[in-house]
Amino acid sequence: MNFVCVKDFENHAYNVLPKNALDYYKSGAGLETTLNNNEKAFSRLRIRPRCLRNVSKRDLSTTILGSKISMPLGIAPTAMQKMAHPEGEMANARAAEYYETIFIQSTISTSSIEEVAEAAPNAIKWFQLYIYNDREVTLGLIKRAEKAGFKAIVLTVDTPFFGIRFADMKNQFTLPPHLRLANFGGEKATKINSTKDGVSGLNNYVNNLFDASLTWKDVAWLKSVTSLPIVLKGILTAEDATIAADMGIAGILVSNHGARQVDGTPASIEALPEIAYAVGNRVEIYLDGGVRDGTDVFKALALGARMVFMGRPALWGLAHSGEEGVKKVLNLIKTQLDSTLAISGCSSIGDIKKEHVVWDNYYCKL
Ligand SMILES: Cc1cc2nc3c(=O)[nH]c(=O)nc-3n(C[C@H](O)[C@H](O)[C@H](O)COP(=O)(O)O)c2cc1C
Ligand SMILES: CCCCCCC(=O)C(=O)O
Questions:
Q1: Are strands 62-64 and 45-47 parallel, antiparallel or unpaired?
Q2: Does the model's ipTM exceed the 0.90 cut?
Q3: Distance, CA 78 to ligand 1 centroid (Å)?
Q4: Is a pLDDT exceeding 80 seen at residue 195?
Q5: What is the pLDDT of residue 204?
Q6: Which domains does the chain possess?
Q7: Is 320 tagged catalytic?
Q8: What's the whole-model pTM score?
Q9: Second label for 231, Cα 20 to 30 Å away, from 127, 186, 289, 306?
Q10: pLDDT of 298-326, one tens digit each?
Q11: For a substitution probing ligand 1, which of 202, 210, 260 has the most ligand atoms within 8 Å of its CB?
């Protein structure tokens, strides 16, 4: 079968992944209203194409935190990728390396920081950080990422407590026994299990080991212990974006965590405009959540994002054929973005302007 869009890879993954893994990957929090809305909200945006603009030569490259990338689409951090393919994070990072874009490695990886660095030495790698109650463990992760050549620390700020995900509770999610969280030794590497009906092993792990007392003081602490630029992932309001910008944070990743934390938050693309308006000239802004097509990338850029990331689509690519599958997914979206640029009258990423996109009610008012 010819796979021509992300949905084809998603459908394939639904047929091949074991239930425990598939449910974990695909679920959102609670009733999954926000999960559906993450994708649907993109379809409430309309592109206003401009014509007769000589688009015979086009360039999708841009710069992010000083690094040149070939297109404004990267790979978001997702945990436990070896449940999708035996090479997990290493395959994903290699695909990002091939397409000269950014790979964000999760703290909760089934390949270690060092394994990913060795597998994809030339990829632009960022490290996603969860702050553990044990600050020495946290500091150890930061120092290892610095040593391994990672270019930024992405602090996830939307997970002080773990989201309620019905399927993981029903499945009593447990990490398959042949896998471990490769950045750790001891119980932090393996103790994702559940012994109680209706309880997910993930909630046990996070609610026991992650620091739920985090405040902006801890962001200042992080700034004081690393020389790497810091990106805050999970900001959804202008107020928090303003605090981050005032603190000199390098980047904000507008995200609702793939709608996995609390149902009822806005779609990421709905939250983007107020953040871009508040701090867009002071800090780099990125977005993830529901990006499934090149037109989504175009819309997010028009509304103020400098680049976007995808989470689940890369997992569906991994489940299809590892590194090659992720490359195919990246290539599909890249081709769609190139086509959108051309047909909208843009030759470069810098040509995408906010006037290129409006919310659907714009047309009802005319
Ligand atoms: C299976 C899965 C695991 C995830 N694990 C992490 C993680 O370890 N750290 C993190 O900051 N975000 C994590 N996320 C959230 C993603 O980084 C990202 O915000 C989200 O997947 C984007 O939405 P999308 O899947 O619609 O592209 C995870 C998301 C999924 C689907
Ligand atoms: C074993 C703990 C899972 C940690 C968090 C992974 C994640 O962020 C997710 O959304 O799932």
A1: unpaired
A2: yes
A3: 5
A4: no
A5: 87
A6: 6-365 (3.20.20.70)
A7: no
A8: 0.99
A9: 186
A10: 999 999 999 999 999 999 999 999 999 99
A11: 260
